[in-house]
Design a protein that fits this description.
Helix content: 25-40%
Number of domains: 1
Largest sheet: 5 strands, mixed
Order of helices and strands: EEHEHEHE
Structural class: alpha/beta
Number of strands: 5
CATH architecture: 2-Layer Sandwich
CATH topology: Transcription Regulator spoIIAA
Distance between the termini: 30 Å
Shape: globular
CATH superfamily: STAS domain
Length: 110
Amino acid sequence: MNLSIRLENEGNHHTLYLGGEVDAYTAQQLKDRLMPLVQQGADSTVTVDLRDVVYMDSTGIGIFIGALKAAARSGSRLLLMNVPPRIDRLFRITGLHEILTITPLKGEEA
């Protein structure tokens, strides 16, 4: 399966809508779209909507760790939203839920 990425910009707020699989085959595509956004600086917020992601492996996790570090260096913010339960479980197992800002799926409590 492929990865679809749609970008919406509203001022300094950028939202990436992902769909499909984030794995070794698609990770570079995500990295190429995400990294320039998180490196824009202190007034920038990047939100990644994972609602339509059906699979993520360790390569995808590595992309988000790298993006989080790049955001910290540039002073921008990285947020994840609408994380499906299967992906949320992966973030919890790896401990990433403690360092990433994740908002719950709509209709669910934090």
